[in-house]
Amino acid sequence: MMPLFITLGFWQMDRAEQKRRIANTMETRRKLPPMTLNGELPNADEIVFRTLSVSGHFDPAGQLLITNRKHLGKPGFHVITPLRLQNSERYILVNRGWIASADNQPPEIATPSGPVTLSGEAYIPAPPAIQLAFDPNASTLWPFLTLENYRAWSRLNILPFIILQSPDSPHGFARAWSSARPGPGMHLGYAIQWFTFGFLSLALWLKLSLKRAAVVTTAENS
Description:
alpha/beta; 2 domains
């Protein structure tokens, strides 16, 4: 058991280092000036956490709602609307924020029809640890968002990241995005726990081995 526990400890140490790198990247990129998306589009991993400025037209036909989202303790939805980029055939998904729900029913959502310019932080949504098979004919009420599922559902040519619309940007709803930096503390605690289990396993093995050796020696002397 000792090699297993030690391996798990080093795995948690590696996870802690990953969180440190993410936190440093987040802090650095959030200090950069807004980046305007035009011309050649950047790699998603190179701009995540950075503020972007985009212009184009909203496409309400591709709009959907993410259910069971809370704001100030109240239930509601996150509004996801595709924005067709100016002078482009590509789209970027915009999380326009939170709206309240009445009896968990989707409300009427105002979407501007003319050209818009907005800003927000680049973000790559991740699926939950366990998810059911996706139905490409699903309704516009989703429990979570992934870019792969949205491509299959909408058939739109979307960018490999979305925008969390800034609170001061127009045409959005309630926006209180988390700005907390991921910390390594939890993983370091788990690592200490696994290392402790490993050394306890070693100590137990040594104790049982010495006890068995003593029993064998006594038996031989008898």
